[in-house]
Amino acid sequence: MNPTIVAVLSFVIVAGLTVVAAVILMRYWPAFQRERLAPGTPAATQAGATSILRWTDQPRTGLEGAIESIGRAVGGSEEAAPSKYRRKLMWAGYYEPRTVALFVGAKVALGGGLGLLYFLYGVVNLTGTPLARVLAVSLILAVIGFFLPDYWLHNRIKVRRREILHALPDVLDLLMVCVEAGLGFDAAVARVSEQPGIKPSPLHQELLRMHLEVRAGRARSEALRAFAERTGVEELKAIVGAFIQTEKLGTPLGKTLRVHADAARVQRRHRAEQLAHLAPLKMLFPTVFFLMPAFFLVTLAPSLLGLLKLLKAISR
Questions:
Q1: CB-CB contact of 210 with 227 (8 Å)
Q2: How many angstroms separate the Cα of 70 from the Cα of each of 38, 60, 138?
Q3: What is the pTM of this model?
Q4: Is the CB of residue 180 less than 8 Å from the CB of residue 254?
Q5: Exposure winner among 2, 19, 95, 244, fewest CB in 10 A?
Q6: Is the Cβ–Cβ distance between 304 and 205 less than 8 Å?
Q7: Are the CB atoms for 202 and 225 separated by under 8 Å?
Q8: What architecture is domain 162-262?
Q9: What is the pLDDT of residues 98-148, one digit of tens each?
Q10: 192 and 171 in contact (C-beta within 8 Å)?
């Protein structure tokens, strides 16, 4: 083969492999993120360019915009929207005011859509089915679709509270270490909430939001109370109350953090032990309903078959 052709093919193959390897590294390896290679714009600066205290006022388009329009038509503006939905959405981690209109619109759209679709299907493909039954099923589907977002929101709140309770002892330990090392409370909160090496939990995000509110000029006690109210966790409300009382009385914050960190760690261990004790009881029902019939079939089937043969022989 011509040496020139061999050289060109070798160059193309090596260049292609280099480009593929570079794309894979840029896409999947955190140490080679594209933001870090950008000149003069560190990754931390780009990540923190948009504050979590802000949200866009640009109107949404497409399906999301249509659902939001339905929610505004039914529930009114953000100020007139039901406060229970606003509180529950805040507990689930959604703080933007228009999420209330989106949630109400999703309830109405899902309920009306399911009911209307089944009604149209029953009317078009009516094959001897009474109209009253079609209306009844459509009404049932509409009710299910209307309350389905509430079920999703309830599960979302439960999962978020569980994550906050699970991360609470570790966060209190880190705050205690920072405070006893000489940092102030605000600096300790900033240090713990902005850790780059861990996956941010909902508790870290709430701490960061509280820190930004204090930096924006909000009083620390008000920011702490709002922080506890956003989580909806009773244990955290008690801890925040202790922090505020400590600040008013001037007692050492490190001792308060140490006591509550130990208590939170003991409570987490008790919750784990409770779930471990409930595990055999939860396994009982699948065992009875799914495994026991198979066991009985395997053990009794040969005897039953022999008994049936014997009965047939006797009857002959």
A1: yes
A2: 43, 13, 21
A3: 0.69
A4: yes
A5: 2
A6: no
A7: no
A8: Up-down Bundle (1.20)
A9: 888 888 888 888 888 888 888 887 777 766 667 788 888 889 989 998 999
A10: yes
Tokens 């009604």, located at residue: 119
Q: What are phi and psi of 303, to 5 degrees?
A: -65, -40
What are the CB-based long-range contacts (under 8 Å, 24+) for 215-219? 216/53
Identify the residue whose tokens are 């004790």. 277
Distance between alpha carbon 215 and the CA centroid of its chain, in Å? 27
CA max distance for the chain: 98
Chain-centroid distance of CA 237 in Å reads 21
User: Which residue from 147, 86, 162, 68 is spatially nearest to 114, judged by alpha carbons?
Assistant: 147
Domain boundaries, the chain: 80-160, 162-262
User: Which residues make Cβ contacts (< 8 Å) with residue 123, sequence separation at least 6?
Assistant: 134
Q: CB-hemisphere CA count at 13 Å for 255?
A: 5
CB atoms within 10 A of CB 257: 26
Q: Cα separation of 116 and 194, whole Å?
A: 48
Residue 31's pLDDT band (cuts 50, 70, 90): very low
